[in-house]
Design goal:
Belongs to the Rieske iron-sulfur protein family. The chain is built from three helices and eleven strands; from the N terminus they run αββαβββαββββββ. The protein is mainly beta. The chain has one domain: Rieske [2Fe-2S] iron-sulphur domain (Rieske Iron-sulfur Protein, 3-layer Sandwich), CATH 2.102.10. The strands form three sheets. A four-stranded antiparallel beta sheet has the order 1-4-5-6. The protein has a four-stranded antiparallel beta sheet with strand order 2-3-11-10, with no helix packed on it. A three-stranded antiparallel beta sheet has the order 7-8-9, with no helix packed on it. The protein binds FE2/S2 (inorganic) cluster.
């Protein structure tokens, strides 16, 4: 019987789509003390056909709190937007020697204007395609810095239960797991402080 957590290679996005389609207009994955409310987001939602064709998605992150994640759909993929805490950001460089591509040097995994340790345009805001680079499962967000069964020194990140791949809070993959590369960062830019356009590079970017 097929593993329900792994996408059928013939239909590489459908399983993941089913999982997140119902969540595209809600904040999910609130983590951490003091984060009680689960606000709804406002987003411009083009038609399903336009989205599959690659139309950009406008993400309003005005209500996004530290430790929370917004999920949007772009080109049939889940796009995660996460607001990272100062503690999580400070932990990122301490993980470098445990990672395959700590400085984001594989050009396939992010646009050229996304560099280095944070893999983001603004340090606190991470934008990722939420699909494991092994076989396309949607990893679980484990954003808190605390011991986890799969890593007693966990500094926050994403854990893929399908085959136990681990990524940090920048989507950087750990050594020694099945996933070969960092999570993908999609093209995006800020229209203003609280609006991200997913699918369009910043003006002037290559
Ligand atoms: S799909 Fe295999 S570890 Fe994520």
């Amino acid at each position: 019987m097929a593993n329900p957590g792994v996408n059928d290679p013939i239909e590489p996005v459908n399983t993941g789509r089913r999982r997140f389609l119902t969540m595209t207009t809600a904040v999910v994955g609130a983590v951490g003390a003091g984060v009680a409310a689960v606000p709804f987001i406002k987003s411009w939602n083009p038609s399903a056909r336009a989205k599959l064709a690659g139309a950009p998605v406008i993400a309003d992150i005005g209500a996004l709190q530290e430790g929370q994640r917004l999920i949007f759909e772009w080109r049939g993929q889940p796009i995660w937007i996460v607001k990272r805490s100062k503690a999580v950001l400070e932990a990122l460089p301490t993980l470098n020697d445990q990672l395959r591509d700590p400085m984001s040097e594989n050009p396939e995994q992010q646009p050229p204007y996304i560099k280095g340790v944070t893999r983001s345009l603004k340090p606190e805001i991470s934008v990722l395609v939420g699909l494991c680079t092994h076989l396309g499962c949607s990893p679980e967000m484990k954003a808190e810095i605390r011991p986890e069964p799969f890593d007693p020194n966990w500094k926050g990140g994403y854990f893929c239960p399908c085959h136990k791949s681990k990524f940090d809070m920048a989507g950087r993959v750990f050594e020694g797991v099945p996933a070969p590369t960092n999570l993908i960062v999609p093209p995006h830019h800020y229209e203003n402080d609280t609006t991200i356009v997913i699918g369009v590079d910043p003006q002037g970017a290559a």
